[in-house]
Amino acid sequence: MNFLRHHKLDVIGLLEIKLVEETLPKTMKTWFAGWKHTCNFHMHPAGRILVLWNPSTVILEELDISPQVIHCAITCKVSSVSLLESFIYGYHTIGSRKPLWDNLISFGENCSLPWIAIGDYNNILNANRKCNGKDVTSKELKDFEECCVLMGLTNLRSMGCHFTWTNNEVWCKLDRAMVNKHWFDQGFDGMANFLPSVCLSNHSPCIISLLDVIINTNRPFRFFNMWVSHMNFNDLVATNWNLYVRGTKQFMLCKKLKNLKRPLKELNIKHFSHISSRAAKANEDLERGQLQLHDDPTNMDLQNFVATMRKQSMSLSEAERCFYYQQAKCKHLNQSNRGTKFFHDLVKRNKKRNQIVAVCKEDGLPTTSIDEVAKEFTKFYECLLGENSGCSKAYDYFRPRGTPKVWATVWRHYIPPKHSIILWLGIKGMLQTKDRLHYMDIDRNCALCGTVPETLDHLFFQCNMTKQVWLQIKKWLRITRAMSTIKSALKYMKKEARGT
Fold it and tell me: Among 200, 283, 234, which residue's Cα sits nearest to residue 15?
């Protein structure tokens, strides 16, 4: 069980366990509670093959059971990946193994899914897979070789022990994990790890790790914003864009864009591939160089090295931030406005983040009661503003006392409060003009002129209608200074307030 917990297995095949069918339910209840099983105990008195699986993560369907093999169809509930798996325990003599090879050939001929055949074949495939003992004859290898050729079975990538069985005098590779051509055609990738047998058995236990399934399709071209920060980006684009192309305007545009794909992909591979690893390595090199420079501060070579590495590290860190920002933004735009689990999780997260679940009462004790939290807020603002106060008193509360120099012009007592609030938000860049409402599907053009995207400076200074208003105000107040942004207007008002 410690072995099972350590390796986090979901499907287990046990061979030659020497259990009887009568004691199996008790063993399952004691050691594998909640798991399901299938076996071929009814076909052989020695209890040859027992297959266990966790039904919470795997769906396993028995396809065929024989004395030497159990064929199953397995579907992972997490990734929805489906495959066929055969658990094999071959007999010990050449003649008795012939039904096994016939069974595998018959099953493989009708197989159209990725198939992995794993277990103790009790047969070596090559003469060099045996050390010591009697010489291997071609008769021993023939049946196994023919079966592999007919079914297109090849060894799965493996690591660990080269010889999987030993009696301390003879070493052989009897245990194998083999896959068919559909395994590779459908982009499956896995690894077989043959561990030392220790005291469990004279066979090496094998663990199959199914890696991420990669579908073999042409990946679409994606433009990454981090490429723009590279010093050669503009020259690269200009060189390929200025190539002569003959045809219609639309054909020329498509052809030039297509010509840019390969250079941009090469730029990405050379300078931005595995961006997180590059950024981490640059940070490590910078830290190591800084420690060396600390021990030898007069070393000019180290000074130049640290300066170069600091620049490189900052550049790669910014590229990494840009990459993940673009990736998160694409995911948000694609999924956040749909009724998906992602959307609902996003709503729940924002709700929890914006919710005040606890406050301290007047006596200093915290409370998490929703009713008491509401009462404490109500009591606080009643004491602050009074029960019948209007919104003007609330504005007065938020207006700073002893107004700082920076905000002296904004928070004048004679300025209507809502005007002060609008000016304050505009200076801090937080006024909700249409260019900031990117998450809403609305017309981004100015509400006054309707021709240019609405930004803060355009709305208040650069719009044709706003310019007419300013022209009349400046003529009335005899203002000659040109003001095109809110900051320049504030600077002028501060200057006038000082009388300079």
Answer: 200
Under a CB-based contact definition with an 8 Å cutoff, are residues 47 and 17 in contact? yes
- Distance from C-alpha of 87 to C-alpha of 119, rounded to nearest angstrom: 6
C-alpha span between 466 and 445 (Å, rounded): 15
Residues of the chain with CATH 3.60.10.10: 2-210
Q: How far apart are CA 310 and CA 287, in angstroms?
A: 9
Q: Which residues of the chain have pLDDT under 50?
A: 213-217, 403, 500
Looking at residue 221, what DSSP letter applies? P
Cα–Cα dist 404/395, whole Å: 17
Strand partners, 115: 84
| 396 membership: H or E segment, kind and range | helix 391-398
For the stretch 437-451, pLDDT in tens is 766 777 788 888 888
The DSSP-derived string for 344-393 is: HHHHHHHHHHH----EE-TTS-EE--HHHHHHHHHHHHHHHH-TT--HHH
What is the four-CA torsion angle of 409, 411, 417, 422, rounded to 10 degrees? 60
Q: pTM higher than 0.70, yes or no?
A: no
Cα separation of 144 and 121, whole Å? 9
Question: In what side-by-side order are the strands of the sheet with 206-210?
Answer: 158-160, 190-194, 206-210
Dist CA 184 CA 114 (whole Å): 8
Collect contacts of 405-409 with beta carbons under 8 A, ≥24 apart: 408/494, 408/497, 409/490, 409/493, 409/494, 409/497
Strands 69-76 and 154-155: unpaired
What length does the chain have?
A: 500
Domain made up of 2-210: CATH architecture? 4-Layer Sandwich (3.60)
Note whether 326 and 225 are within 8 A (CB): yes
Element (H, E) at 492: helix 486-498
In a 3-state reduction of DSSP, which class is residue 43? helix
